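Standup notes, structure subgroup. Blocker cleared on the adenosine-5'-diphosphate input:
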Amino acid sequence: MNGDLLSVRGLSLSYGPVSAVRNISLRVGDGEIVALLGPNGAGKTSVLRGVTGLVPPTAGRVRMAGHRVDRPSRAVALGIAHVPEGRRVFPGLSVSDNLLVGGWAVSGSRSQLRARRDQVFEMFPRLGERQRQLAGQLSGGEQQMLAIGRALMTEPRLLLIDELSLGLAPMVVDTLIERLVELNKAGLSLLLIEQFVHRALGIADRVYMLSKGRVVFEGTPDDATKAGAVEEAYLLGAGT
Ligand SMILES: Nc1ncnc2c1ncn2[C@@H]1O[C@H](COP(=O)(O)OP(=O)(O)O)[C@@H](O)[C@H]1O
Ligand SMILES: [Mg+2]
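Run returned:
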């Protein structure tokens, strides 16, 4: 494995009086797939918000390829793209415009943007077939493809994905995972939150288990399974 791409040290984050992330450290090596797992309310989404600076951390530091990340625009500029929980496509825009808007944050001519959009269509032909449809009319799986495609429009080195498969049919999830593994082979690193733990363990190089805002296990998927870390983290439960 190569050096760290993402390095998070001592991250803490609160919502007013609610402490959601407590002194978390984690790393994603260049080319890795890292899974971030844990029960509802464990703080997974909040870690991603802290990484991009969407919610400013109360403590800790985030570095991407050695550079400090302190706000979302900086995260994008440094090559971090975020597929948020709930996908958040723009329902009133066409599929094509969702992608073009996604690439707007980074520099590039219109023709470069269109070329990148067409690469997304090659990766997800269903989006290409539906490029003039409104995003709000797509199925959940197609919306997730669009959310991933939109994130790819910034040509990231690291993709943060929050709840890849939530509410999606198993066959659609298979397709999404296949595409992500291909992207990873082409050099994209992934930090993945996934409710189907065994699916995540199946593709991850390393895994972090969170419970109540803390890292309770860090290791390989094999170690996580042997140590019973998965069951333990989920049994420890949610909340603060
Ligand atoms: N916008 C918010 N305002 C207040 N509390 C929040 C907000 N988002 C999350 N929380 C709280 O922060 C904790 C961690 O939540 P979250 O990061 O969403 O966990 P997970 O993604 O693992 O389910 C929970 O106690 C949750 O209720
Ligand atoms: Mg969440």
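Discussed briefly. Strands lie at 4-15, 18-29, 33-37, 59-64, 67-68, 80-83, 158-162, 189-193, 206-211, 214-219.
Next: hand off to the docking folks.
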